[in-house]
Automatic annotation (TrEMBL):
InterPro entries: DUF3298, PdaC, PdaC/RsiV-like_sf. Coiled coil: none annotated. Residues 175-252 form the DUF3298 domain. It holds the Pfam family PdaC. Residues 69-154 form the Deacetylase PdaC domain. This is DUF3298 domain-containing protein.
Amino acid sequence: MKHYLTIALTALLLTGCGKDKKENNEIETEPVVALAFETKEYKATSSLPCKEHCPKVAIEVTEATGPQPTADSINKKIFNTVREIIYYGEKPYDATNYDELTASFIQSYEELKKEFPKEMLGWEGTIAATVTHRTDSLLNITLNHFTYTGGAHGYAGTRSLLFDPKTGHALAYRDIFNDVKSFTDYAEKSFRKKFKIEAMQSINSTGFMFENETFVLPNAIFFQEDGLLLYYNTYEVSSYAEGAKELLLPYKEIEQYLKVK
């Protein structure tokens, strides 16, 4: 009888251990949620009567989903950048989401329209934010935008947001280049060559408007299939009439400067 009891207890213990081991394995092999993106659209128009040149705001953004806080960090950076573009007045609106942002823009229009009913033309604010480059170490989101809130013409521009896809942290130049100064020196030589500015001449000698006559990297840098694009938006180093300026540097020529690609 004792012999059978010992066998039963042993079998029970083995079953329990096997169950615990199976449960542990299930925990260890849970699938990792990958970072993904989906497009969201937000639009608004005025409720005031309008026959032509009617105001409108349309925001199309790529929204990150997946692991936190990575996705949330990316989405917050995108929203804050959009908020810096779509506004009227001395500072951006205190909006906390896209619906509030579009409503605030239209509200600003309506307030001025009621005050100056014959002088107001239709405002416009459009933004399209998309993922344009993605690797294991780098995420590049491009924002193309246009705004018009009166005056002779509107303003079109392009912004670049660079992220670490593992953490969602925005990348600065020091995170991208091994030596920012050395890369800047190389970029200046390439810029002078493209725009035919002699080495001994001022960087502004042909009409550019670099502050303090000192070459600097642009606010927008894009990682493309064929190289790194340095993009100077209108007014950054040139007039509205001159438009934006671009400098494409092939990866094979700048490999030594890059931390990520």
